[in-house]
Amino acid sequence: MQPHLLKGALLLLLAEACFAGIGAVVKYSSDLASEAQIVFFRNLFALVLMLPFLYRHGFAMLKTQRWYLHLSRALTGLVSMYCFFYVLSQLPLAQAMMVIMLSPFIVPILARFWLNERPSRVTRFGIALGFIGVILALPSPEPGLNLVLLLALFSAFLVAITKTTIRAMASTESAVRIVFYFSLLTALLSAIPVPFYWQPLAAEVWLAFIGMGVLAAIGQLAMTRAFAIAPASDIGMWTYSSVLFAGAFGYFFWQEPVTWGWLAGVIVIFYAGYVTTRQRLF
Question: What is the C-alpha separation between 145 and 147, in angstroms, rounded?
Fold first, then answer.
């Protein structure tokens, strides 16, 4: 058994539970605030929660020679955020999260050519199974959803780039530094359009934004640490766990039906994650 792989997988499960929670908060807020406000306050409150780490470690924590990777990750992450938050407002929560789960298919491909991490035969088999699972669970094609699904696919591609970038930085950058720079840069960049899309916010929306920031900070720290201690191609499949959390949130909060197709997709995806990770745990 390799403990770092098990720890990485568990951290990724925690991160995906947080990200599914963010999806639920975004869906709740989408009718009460503009998308620009949602994106900005998600990043702002995540940044505020990272400030104690800056106080604890001092400004020396900010010293980096890889600023270009931090900026690249912030840009891809922010664009992905805008696309995905719009998708969440248009699709049931579980299905929206499922489409985004295409990103793990892309992570091993990027890791192969960028980081020279070679996925094994079992990993490639798991990727194929995961792809089948997503196809089973995708919403039925409708003309009005074509743009939404395209945006979801584009967001998934950007998420894969973001996660592979984390792996590329892990040799020199700490998890705290990576998350702090992501929070700082995305908060600054997402503040630009807010004055043009401002609207009054109710008290419950502010509470939702704070909760979203907490989930974002925890999720980012857990995900960054997971990909820092374990290869992306080995644990990336566990990103699929968020669809289970999303399905539960959608069912309990919005009474969104759990279809047989979605359930079959989840089962196939979890089996894909199991066979991919098991080969290196034992």
Answer: 6
- Lowest average pLDDT, out of 21-30, 85-94, 163-172, goes to 163-172
Residue 51's alpha-carbon distances to 1, 145, 213, 217, 224, in angstroms, are 37, 40, 13, 11, 17
Q: 98-110, pLDDT tens digit by residue? A: 777 777 667 777 7
Four-point Cα dihedral 272, 278, 279, 282, nearest 10: -170
For 72, counting Cβ atoms within 10 Å of its Cβ (0-12 exposed, 13-18 middle, 19+ buried), the class is: middle
For 251, residues 6+ apart whose C-beta sits below 8 A from its C-beta are: 94, 257, 258
Site of tokens 């949602």: 38
Instruction: Convert the pLDDT of each residue in 226-268 to its tens digit.
Output: 877 877 667 766 777 787 888 888 888 888 877 787 788 878 8
123 neighbors 234 (Cβ within 8 angstroms): yes
For the CA atoms of 52, 53, 55, 61, the dihedral, rounded to the nearest 10 degrees, stands at -160
Evaluated on CA atoms 242, 243, 244, 250, the torsion sign reads positive
Cβ neighbours for 118, distance < 8 A, ≥ 6 positions apart: 112, 233
Q: Return d(Cα 122, Cα 275) in angstroms, integer.
A: 7
